[in-house]
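Dehydrogenase: structure tokens wanted.
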Amino acid sequence: MRVRVSGCGGLLRVGDRLVWDDHLSHRQLALADGVERVLGWFRTWRELGSIRAADPDVRTGEWLERAAEALLDRDILVAEGSDRDRTEQEIAREWAGWGPHAPAFYFGTRSHRSALYITDAEDAARLAAKLTTDPPPVPFRRFPGSSTVALPDVDRGLLSGRDFVDVLRQRRSHRMFGRAELDLGTLATLLKLAAGPLSHKDGALAAESGSVFKTSPSGGARHPTEFYVYALRVRDLAPGLYHYAADTHLLEDLDRRATPEFLVAACGDQEWVADASALVFYTSVRARSAWKYDMGRALRILFLDVGHLSQTVYLLAAALGLRVTFTAALRDESVEELLGCDPVREIIIGTSVLGTEP
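Answer:
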């Protein structure tokens, strides 16, 4: 029987232990010292008993063979032609163009039929207990010491008479923009309606647990997404990078400037970006969602949240007579450099590129 190392797992260091992470079956198994020799031996298809040749000492060779048999029982080694082998071969074939990390993330966060879910009452009790020992992160980011730009309130007149069905049908991605400046009041209306918090019944913008309501849904009402605006041609707003302080409806000037060439490069060399009036970069503050959902699957929610928000921006842009395209074709490191965000804590997701009609 020929075996080799599974293609749907990998070695991790957890503390001082080597751990095998099997993302198909959602198992993590601590490995005994010396087992890495077995994994190295079976990088390619080999007969199971061949491992004895890995060491001239008979007793060591016998131990290595027993270790190989144990790894085979646990799907760390896979037998040629087995059900597990056929599944791994199919995954490798179908997901080949996306590299090894994409299937590892998807299958590693895919829920099995045996997944356990708690009731709403149990979840409420869990969070209430957590509040006593582990307060949630603040739901709104601020940049103390930065100068601020006051924004006009929502101008309902800009949206009056717009039929919702017409707005849905007019929603398009446009990559050609006019040279006219984007009006600051129009931008302010878009930002507040897309990212501004809605009051709870008691008038608070955020619950004690950090839950926030907005015009777009968010997993667990955590709203981890932050809006950063890079103004290129916005009337009454100096060019540069701003953070939208959603709780106070202010722009915080981050005092960072970039050339159109830098922005084009940061947005995947898409030349049309230079003709835009403004870019809205979306980041996710991981800790906000992790406070409630401390599991790898929650990473999916961060991307879904930005999908909801960017669609709201699309619809608002259509209603306000603007042009917009969302793109995730970013050089993350370049955007992180511009925004000054730490990718360990704040994740770059994408950007909406806004402009006026030609």
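The CA atoms of residues 78 and 85 lie 6 Å apart. The first strand starts at residue 2 and ends at 5.

Cheers.
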